[in-house]
Design goal:
- This protein is α+β, with helices and mostly antiparallel strands.
- The chain has 3 domains: 1-35, no CATH class; 44-123, no CATH class; 125-209, no CATH class.
- It is 32% helix and 21% strand.
- The protein contains 7 helices and 7 strands; from the N terminus they run H-H-H-H-H-H-E-E-E-H-E-E-E-E.
- The protein has helices at residues 17-24, 28-34, 39-48, 56-63, 94-108, 112-122, 160-167, and strands at residues 126-128, 134-143, 146-154, 171-175, 178-183, 186-192, 204-206.
- It has a 7-stranded antiparallel sheet with strand order 6-5-4-3-2-1-7.
- A hairpin with a 2-residue loop joins strand 2 and strand 3.
- Helix 2 (28-34) runs antiparallel to helix 3 (39-48).
- It is globular.
- The structure holds zinc ion.
- Zinc ion is lined by residues 38, 40-41, 88-89, 93, 95-96.
- Residues 38, 40-41, 88-89, 93, 95-96 line the site of zinc ion.
Amino acid sequence: MSRNKCAPADGIPLLSGTVSSISRSSNHLEFGRLLGYPDCCVGFFGKSNNWNKTNSYVEAYLGTKASCDYRTNCFGKNLGYSLTFHIPCRFDCSSTIRYSTALAKFLDGCEPEYVAACRQLLRKPVLSLNEREIVVLDGVFVDDRRVKYRDAIDLFAMPEDVLRAIRAGNIIEVRGRFVLVFRNQELVETFECRCDEFGPRVPLLIGWA
Ligand SMILES: [Zn+2]
């Protein structure tokens, strides 16, 4: 992104001395509010972000009533391409959609190429196991639970063996707690996700409308 082309806009909070001092404390909820994150999502984070018990992405997914909306897709933040930087309370959260729409409108005026790149990335399917183990799949859904892909982009800390297994295939399927990887019609890898340990793994294959 070029510098100094974007001026502050209404509804988009600015970092301040207050925010930086709070960020050094562990008051994550107040920090989220100061960053302008929706109250519903801040409240959700306060309840769900306990890695001993929950998986926030699964909680958000289970609460989603409509389709998962790409404007609530927060996974791109790890790649620097996102319009939403908080975990939404649901993947159809209307407040988050308003937030990211306002941000996209503002950025469209000064960094349209960045916004176009975000929109392209944020519509790609995501495989999430827990809050650290996430890949973006460069591909498309072929039915309700399978994605055909050319590549998998690691967002954070997907274990090497899992990443290698995913990249050995070109079709991925989530079946209950199992992730199956196929190379065309041939099954090349299966791995089980356990949720009875720290950082509970529950596989989610998310498509975005
Ligand atoms: Zn929300």
